[in-house]
Amino acid sequence: MDPEMDSQLKIGFIGAGNMAFGIAKGILTGNVLPVNVKVSAPSSRNLGRFQELGIPITHSNIEVVCGSDVVFVAVKPHLVSLVLNEISQHVTDRHIIVSVAAGVTLSTLEELLPENSVAIRLMPNLPCLVQEGALLFARGSHAKQEDGALLRSLLHRCGLVEEGPESWIDIHTGLSGSGVAFVYLFAEALAEGAVKMGMPSALAHSIASQTVLGAGRLLRDSGKHPAQLRSEVCTPGGTTIYGLHTLEQGGVRASTMSAVESATERARELGRKSSKNQLV
Amino acid sequence: RLAYCPNLRARWLSRLSVKCPSTGRMSVGFIGAGQLAHALVRGFTAAGVIATHRITASSPDTDLPTVQGLRKLGVNFTTSNKETVDKSDVLFLAVKPHIIPFVLDEIGPNIEDRHLIVSCAAGVTISSIEKKLRQYRTAPKVMRCMTNTPVVVREGATVYATGTHAEVEDGKLLEQLMASVGYCTEVEEDLIDAVTGLSGSGPAYAFTAVDALADGGVKMGLPRRLAVRLGAQALLGAARMLLDSEQHPGQLKDNVCSPGGATIHALHVMESGGFRSLLINAVEASCVRTRELQFLADQEKISPAAIKKTTLDKVLQQPGVTAEGVGVKPRGIIA
């Protein structure tokens, strides 16, 4: 992506929550200047941390839209239709509207926006906050490949950015949106196992989190299949294979698969519900 | 690599027998004429690694169905274990583990320096065999191997461990023989129990799996014969792919599972049933039981019920064999 173009790009955020903050931080580590970013929220509560980054703040959503090329709609799902109704008249075909609202479909977004609007649906996850997010986006009917490429170049510092059909977004929610919580559960259980065996809790937790982090980095950076990495850790008759056997006996694989399945199903259900609500 | 590819292996072997005529000229004997002896003879014969007239097998029990099979293959069959010893250079002990001590006491006096004793008995240690044979010979050459029944179709899995007095060449000789009927490699003796649990018992796990897969096929409408054929072919093909590939089985599994497809649904069902842990448990159970049997054998505690009366009687009828000589009280303890 053309760095000069980047630095001219104006980015707006409607909503000042964690997702907006995480994405903003990531964007700023690229070529976008703080002065070219704007964020709006009804109250000043969450705006302080944006100001610390040098980002102009406002309480006017319309001001954000008029002053931006790319607008991130980062409000809670039930507020999306309210916000889009408010800004709709100010949206032109030069805008790229990026919604990060869970369960709000592209068809809903396109219905609420003027005809021919460029809409993209983005599902980030919590670790965007530390620039280690997993982000999946789906382009709306009028979003062209170049719009996707632009978004990708903006977001690549937030973590892993991939594009896919809209049907994958619910799966992504189950896998990596909720998946983060599954990992926290596992980390907690690892620590508790250590506490049971006699390690002090604080130390156990800090080691558990580093273990998860380290394993995650090795997995990502080695390019090897996780089964391969697992085999490499297991010395014959050693501690790891004994532990793994116990995990297998507990059916961890199956319940993990089921967890992703449940979360995905729920995301789909919520998506259907919110579509129905929009039409009412 | 050579061991996996039948054509390459056949060519390698034929070059080998030109360079090493040892397998061609040696004689092989089997003490015991049951499933294992029969399977090995069938495999060796199919591989052409030794002529059948150079193979002798013995058992006091001529009623075994495998005896017929061995005779038909052209093997010299006798009821005298001593005769087998005299006619052989490589001697496979292919009897049940608890019979080994009897056999060793019986043939001990006939062992010569040329003999290579290869025990195939699960759980019987090299040291226990050497201990017995040292009563008769100062440096008996003993090896221990664990093989499996697919040697009969030349797809066996064999490991061997080398005893105190066996030389490197003895290992190579055994390896040549066993490589003709499948995969063969040397291991430290302490791994043999684990091998028993995995590939010794392994074919039984596979037969069970194919049987059940076929049931699944039949349930979904396939005729039984076809279901069994397809189930077995699926396992065979998958095993061949894995052996020929550098990839981890997990990766190969992924390659079969298209997103949201039939296979991944089925795999989830399997995981929910604890498929993986079941298999781990099975290998462990077999290995543990092997160790138990070894422990019992080392104690030389042979339960009377474990010895078929007819077999023992027949052993005792052999010239030169006494009850004391094979370690039983005459008549008294036999149920």
Automatic annotation (TrEMBL), chain A:
InterPro entries: 6-PGluconate_DH-like_C_sf, NAD(P)-bd_dom_sf, P5C_Rdtase_cat_N, P5CR-like_CS, P5CR_dimer, Pyrroline-COOH_reductase. GO terms for molecular function: pyrroline-5-carboxylate reductase activity. Residues 166-270 form the Pyrroline-5-carboxylate reductase dimerisation domain. GO terms for cellular component: cytoplasm. The keyword NADP applies. NADPH binds at residue 61. GO terms for biological process: L-proline biosynthetic process. NCBIfam families: proC. Belongs to the pyrroline-5-carboxylate reductase family. This is Pyrroline-5-carboxylate reductase. It comes from Dicentrarchus labrax (European seabass).
TrEMBL record, chain B:
Residues 189-293 form the Pyrroline-5-carboxylate reductase dimerisation domain. Keywords: Acetylation, Amino-acid biosynthesis, Mitochondrion, NADP, Oxidoreductase, Phosphoprotein, Proline biosynthesis. The keyword Ligase does not apply. SUPFAM superfamilies: 6-phosphogluconate dehydrogenase C-terminal domain-like (SSF48179), NAD(P)-binding Rossmann-fold domains (SSF51735). It is an enzyme of class 1 (oxidoreductase). It is found in: Mitochondrion. It catalyses: L-proline + NAD(+) = (S)-1-pyrroline-5-carboxylate + NADH + 2 H(+); L-proline + NADP(+) = (S)-1-pyrroline-5-carboxylate + NADPH + 2 H(+). GO terms for cellular component: mitochondrion. Gene3D superfamilies: NAD(P)-binding Rossmann-like Domain, ProC C-terminal domain-like. It holds the Pfam family F420_oxidored. GO terms for biological process: cellular response to oxidative stress; L-proline biosynthetic process. The keyword Oxidoreductase applies. Its EC number is 1.5.1.2. Residues 28-123 form the Pyrroline-5-carboxylate reductase catalytic N-terminal domain. Pathway: Amino-acid biosynthesis; L-proline biosynthesis; L-proline from L-glutamate 5-semialdehyde: step 1/1. HAMAP family: P5C_reductase. This is Pyrroline-5-carboxylate reductase. It comes from Dicentrarchus labrax (European seabass). The lineage of its organism: Eukaryota, Metazoa, Chordata, Craniata, Vertebrata.
